[in-house]
TrEMBL record, chain A:
It comes from Gracilibacillus halophilus YIM-C55.5. Gene3D superfamilies: P-loop containing nucleotide triphosphate hydrolases (3.40.50.300), Winged helix-like DNA-binding domain superfamily/Winged helix DNA-binding domain (1.10.10.10). This is ATP-dependent DNA helicase. It holds the Pfam family DEAD. Residues 25-192 form the Helicase ATP-binding domain. NCBIfam families: recQ_fam. PANTHER family: ATP-DEPENDENT DNA HELICASE RECS-RELATED, DNA HELICASE RECQ FAMILY MEMBER. The keyword Hydrolase applies. GO terms for cellular component: bacterial nucleoid; cytoplasm; replisome.
From TrEMBL, chain B:
It comes from Gracilibacillus halophilus YIM-C55.5. This is Helicase Helix-turn-helix domain-containing protein. It comes from the Bacteria. Residues 251-339 form the Helicase Helix-turn-helix domain.
Length: 511, 350
């Protein structure tokens, strides 16, 4: 066993690395700048977790996904590594300040990009020795990334402020353009690139077009009646996820179904996740909120009840199937009205014309206005953070931001408004083109689905090691898969017996 | 149970308050007004029992009550029960409700979660599963469970045995579903507990009803642990420390601290840069919860007696009516203080 493998075994209990991990860690340990594009589920996080555990100095991870950060902190603590913490802006101020003061006690620190605007935090960080600056979901830096996040554009100056430690930029999906953007924006030199293909040879692709929405239900229920296997069904609305979950629960005998979305209590979310992890549930009806922090190996079916708004999300979600390498299947259901759903999501992500006008009027009327006032107004009004991030970034670019206020002096109102509107139009066009690309893939019938899907990201596809797609060779009756083992114990009839069964399993007291 | 709580709240408010007041009560929006109202209308039991309730959902539920013909809503959003609503309310069996929001508030959920996490921890360690994802996220709960675990020197058998003994004892005296609900939620290495939504489905209830049921369960636990002298293990691990945190708004807390140091109202107002009327509101809040409240700077004994007598005679909570029955020099502030103190005498709270 090599030295790195020994560390891996010691901290994680695995004796070998997965594809690509070792090479990345070696480069990281040599203090090189690294760009890594690794498919979902290939264990990206180990690439910085292991260096954090084995080397001196702190590893700082910037990630936009709060739930993912928290899941990872939990998993690391569960493994016995306690010097890990996640800071986000949702915490109470006092608690956060206390944690910032004690930051030097941690080896691995996760922060959200908006936290890096906190001066107390950056001041503390700049006094510490940081061995590695990790940018998770690095595609957010690029305007051409599907999830562009304006606050990622501050990473450049913050990286300098922290005395420019080596960078590890990680993402699961990045076209060559996006890769270029990341490296040039962060000023990464002599970059060691590790670009891995995003296609997995054990996933087959299937598209099922229906002429009536309710036919999707028939399709899924008959599919799940024949295959009781670990399944994720993705929806673009919470309501639909709930409705279909209840429908399947009633319709398919013996199937164990639950739904999961961002509206559930924290405790319910943990319980449902864990039930799915331990095969206590067969099917999860979920929104994109589910799955990021989950390391379930045996998901066999990923069904998209609605088409996602872009190919990148689709690939990420499909990538949660078959992590154990067993043959797994992606099914996308499509009805011609489905294009309206992502269209609506796009609308809700961008501030509409009326709101732009209103905000500009407001700032020019007041002449100077605290940023947080504008922030809470927009978030309250739209129920979504993305429009706010958009406006904030645009005003900052124009130069109206002065510390914590927006100032209107020296600008013409008409000019500011037209700048915002142009930016809005550009973003909208971009989002719509993404959506069209997704839909094109769904509607094309000439090419192999696998080739068509990955053509934007890589030149070659890995030959599938099972079936390929419904254009090539897919047949349900050629799918060999096993039913989920129902490991539920017989439960006792009265609560008292059950309580004894749960609490006194290994003790020999008389009951 | 949720319907019962809504109807009961509407009934007790007697049309003197709006629906928003009920919403603030259930979600524990800690404003002086909400706290005072909950005392005046004897609604302290429901204080903060549904903190995550969304306003949209709340309005939908009220709409439902309205469609059933159980409530009537006036122009100015005040709400009353119809005759039918009243008979529906009377038809509920409320003997199994242990809710005591103002008293147990956050302590109830804490107690419940400590026990749940303790069970998960001990059963996992006992069966040599050293790593697991805790079912409870809350830092303070995790800390508490750690303390207990080390205090008992990691003796999982003993902890689980005590838990079994005492929980069985408590739930044997409880209404039937509580023991079931409690055990269904537990997580051990062989079985992950049921979520609230799953329980609601299993018991054929709405998620809101199940939420209230589970709150009721946690309040029952607190109540029973406090009352039953034989459950010494539970008493030790999750004691209910009274007066640790008086149920006051944050701002009233600050006023109270200054007041205890001997600062007068004017001084507090100028120090805190607040209006004197705000500080007076804080004093009223304090008068509801602090035992032996020293009223002498604000009221003579004679005034106290006089106001109390008028309130007694008029049998109303309407400040205006009370004020009109007294001399002009008696202020609203003084009346509110007397209402607060007489409430404490009646209820013997805290």
């Amino acid at each position: 066993m090599g030295e790195l493998e020994e560390y891996l075994y010691h901290y994680f209990g695995y004796s070998t690395f997965r594809n690509g991990q070792k090479e990345i860690i070696e480069d990281v340990n040599e203090k090189k700048d690294v760009l890594a594009v690794l498919p979902t589920g290939s264990g990206k996080s180990i690439c910085y977790q292991l260096p954090a555990m084995m080397n001196e100095g702190m590893v700082l991870v910037v990630s936009p996904l709060l739930s993912l950060m928290e899941d990872q902190v939990k998993q690391m603590r569960a493994r016995g590594f306690k010097r890990v913490i996640a800071l986000n802006s949702m915490m109470a101020v006092q608690e956060r300040n206390r944690q910032i003061q004690h930051l030097h006690q941690y080896q691995l620190v996760y922060v959200s990009p908006e936290m890096l605007q906190n001066r107390q935090l950056t001041a503390k960080l700049s006094r510490m020795s940081i061995q590695l600056f990790v940018i998770d979901e690095a595609h957010c830096i690029s305007q051409w990334g599907h999830e562009f996040r304006p606050d990622y554009l501050r990473l450049q100056s913050i990286h300098k402020q922290l005395h420019a430690p080596p960078i590890l930029a990680l993402t699961a999906t990045a076209t060559p353009d996006v890769q270029h953007d990341i490296m040039s924006f962060m000023g990464m030199r002599d970059v060691n690139k590790h670009i891995h293909p995003m296609d997995k040879p054990n996933i087959a692709f299937l598209i099922e077009r229906v002429n009536h929405q309710e036919k999707k239900l028939d399709y899924i229920s008959s599919l799940l009646s024949s295959y009781q296997v670990p399944t994720m069904i993705y929806f673009s609305s919470r309501k639909e996820a709930e409705r279909i979950s209840l429908y399947l629960d009633e319709k398919v005998e013996g199937l164990r179904v639950a739904y999961y979305h961002g509206g559930l209590d924290t405790q319910d979310r943990i319980l449902i996740q864990q039930q799915f992890m331990y095969d206590q549930l067969d099917v999860i009806c979920c929104t994109s909120a589910f799955g990021m922090g989950i390391d379930k190996q045996n998901v066999r079916l990923v069904i998209h009840y609605h088409m996602p708004a872009e190919v990148e999300s689709f690939i990420q979600e499909v990538g949660r199937a078959g992590r154990d390498g067993e043959e797994s299947i992606s099914v996308l259901l499509y009805h011609e009205h489905d294009r309206n759903i992502p269209q609506r999501l796009i609308d809700s992500e961008l501030p509409n014309q009326g709101l732009l006008q209103e905000v500009v009027d407001w700032i020019f009327h007041r002449q100077s206005i605290p940023i947080h006032e504008v922030e809470s107004y927009i978030i309250e009004k739209t129920g979504n953070e993305t429009p706010w991030r958009f406006i904030h970034y645009q005003l900052e670019q124009i130069g109206m931001k002065n510390n914590s206020i927006f100032l209107s002096e020296t600008y013409s109102k008409q000019w500011v408004l037209s700048q915002l509107q142009n930016a809005y139009q550009q973003r909208l066009q971009y989002k719509i083109s993404k959506l069209l690309t997704m839909e094109q893939w769904v509607l094309q019938d000439e090419m192999c689905r696998r080739e068509a899907l990955f053509q934007y990201f890589q030149d070659m596809i890995t030959p599938p090691n099972g079936m390929c797609c419904d254009q090539c060779d897919f047949r349900w009756d050629h799918w060999k898969t096993n039913r989920t083992v129902n490991n539920q114990e017989e439960t006792a009839s009265t609560w008292k017996n059950k309580l004894a069964q749960l609490l006194l399993q290994e003790t020999e007291y008389e009951i | 149970m949720f319907t019962y709580i809504l109807l009961d709240s509407i009934c007790k408010l007697r049309g003197e308050r709006t629906v928003s007041n009920i919403y603030h009560l259930l979600t524990a929006k800690k404003s002086t007004q909400t706290i005072q109202d909950s005392y005046i209308y004897q609604l302290t039991n429901y204080f903060g029992i549904y903190k995550r309730l969304e306003r949209k959902t709340f309005q939908k539920e009220l709409r439902h009550l309205y469609d059933q013909g159980w409530i009537e809503v006036y122009q100015d959003k005040q709400v009353v029960l119809t005759t039918e609503g009243r008979s529906v309310l009377n038809g509920f069996d409320h003997s199994q409700i242990y809710l005591n929001g103002m008293k147990y508030d956050n302590h109830a959920l804490f107690t419940m979660q400590v026990i749940q996490l303790l069970v998960q921890t001990c059963t996992h360690i006992q069966q040599h599963h050293d790593t697991f994802i805790p079912v409870v996220d809350d830092e303070s709960v995790q800390q508490k469970v750690k303390e207990i675990f080390y205090y008992y020197q990691k003796d999982t058998n003993t902890i689980l045995y005590h838990l079994y003994q005492e929980l069985t004892r408590l739930f044997e005296q409880a209404p039937e579903p509580l023991g079931h609900l409690f055990t269904d939620q537990l997580t051990t290495p062989r079985h992950i507990g049921s979520s609230k939504i799953q329980l609601a489905r299993e018991y054929g209830q709405t998620v809101h009803d199940m939420h209230c049921q589970l709150m009721n369960l946690s309040h029952f636990l607190c109540f029973a642990i406090e009352k039953d002298s034989s459950v010494s293990f539970l008493k030790e691990i999750v004691p209910h420390e009274r007066n640790m945190n008086l149920p006051l708004t944050g701002s009233a807390q600050k006023t109270y601290k200054l007041w205890q140091k001997g600062h007068g109202l004017e001084m507090i107002a100028s120090q805190r840069n607040l209006k004197i009327s705000t500080i007076q509101d804080h004093m009223v809040e304090i008068a509801y919860v602090v035992k032996n409240f020293d009223y002498s700077p604000f009221l003579s004994d004679h005034q106290l007696q006089w106001i109390a007598n008028q309130i007694d005679r008029l049998q109303t909570n309407k400040l205006k009516e009370i004020k009109e029955s007294l001399d002009d020099h008696i202020s609203y502030f003084q009346i509110k203080l007397v209402l607060a103190m007489s409430h404490q005498q009646k209820e013997g709270v805290f």
